[in-house]
Amino acid sequence: MPAFSVVICGANCADTLPAACQSAQWADELVFVDSGSTDQTPQIARRYAHQYVVEPWRGYTGQKKFAADLARNDWVLVLDADEECSPELAKELQALSQAELDRHDVFLVRRRNYIFGRHVRAWDPDWQSRVIHRRRCHWPQEALHDARLPSDPSRQARLTGRLNHKRHSSAGFSDYFSGRRLDGRLLDVARQMHARGKRCHWWDLAFRPALTFLKFYILKRGFLDGLFGLALAQKSALTTQLKYAALWTIQNRYESPSKPPADK
User: Fold this and answer.
1) Beta-bridge partners for 162
2) Helix intervals (H) in the chain
3) Alpha-carbon distances, residue 123 vs 192, 236, 261 (angstroms)
4) Which of 54, 65, 164, 186 has CB atoms 3.0–4.6 Å from 84's, for a disulfide?
């Protein structure tokens, strides 16, 4: 059986952390990196983790890379504090052969997302690069969502087991539909898009939000979830509209293209 470390990063996550840590009990090591909790997170983390470390927030990519570098095993499962490793995924990881591990740097895992305790059908399969060889993968710098890349595309494979995201979360309206929160996060994304040469055109604002709605409500069958699916398709469309509106303001110098991202 291969040796795995599980690394979790988080702060003020006492409602979801017990489930996350319990889902990682199969691993040889659990590392938790706390970016500044003021609730019961430290006590919960110390109960489960082999290593508990406090580290100021380095950004989505930097924080997880820091945690992976602390692990004593080269193969690492990267979890958020509001995620769980399913039993099926745990068994699949423990069954990987040495030959499979030698052939790959990164394994992609499907994430099953929940909002208000309900599965978000339209967001499946949501592939995440969470099973990595920490010395062979590459960490691109992303403004919002972190990712890991293999040394060569041929050294990446997909697993069948899932991660469960926010299944036990107490998050409410402001966590999913807050305009202020969306504005701050999407400005960071737009700054990165601008730095990479992306520009907003009239058709981006005219058509992308509507196409995004059709994608999540019709093509990905959000309509099967009634008002819940409708609300989330509208949220996705609004997110797209705000992202390109932010890009437009940056390219027209109404917003600084170089302002550093806000803390988590």
Assistant:
1) 110
2) 17-22, 41-48, 60-70, 87-94, 98-103, 173-177, 179-195, 202-214, 226-251
3) 23, 10, 26
4) 164
For the cut 50, the answer to whether the pLDDT of residue 264 exceeds it is no
| Closest CA relative to residue 105, chosen from 153, 156, 61 | 156
Q: Nearest 5°: CA angle at 115, between 65 and 45?
A: 45
pTM (predicted TM-score): 0.89
Computed over every residue of the chain, the mean pLDDT equals 93
| Residue 259 binned pLDDT confidence (cut-offs 50, 70, 90) | low
Q: Specify the pLDDT at position 144.
A: 77
What does the pLDDT average to over 182-210? 92
Domains of the chain as residue ranges with CATH: 4-165 (3.90.550.10), 173-251 (no CATH)
| 71 and 45 Cβ atoms separated by less than 8 Å | no
The SS3 assignment for 147 reads coil
- Which residues does 87 contact at the CB level (< 8 Å), separation at least 6? none
Residue with the two structure tokens 């909002």: 115
Distance between CA atoms of residues 167 and 57, nearest Å: 24
CA distances from 27 to 89, 113, 173 (A): 12, 23, 34
**Angle, vertex CA 155, rays to CA 150 and CA 160, nearest 5:** 100
pLDDT (tens digit per residue) in 63-101: 999 999 999 999 999 999 999 999 999 999 999 999 999
d(Cα 232, Cα 213) in Å, to the nearest integer?
Answer: 9
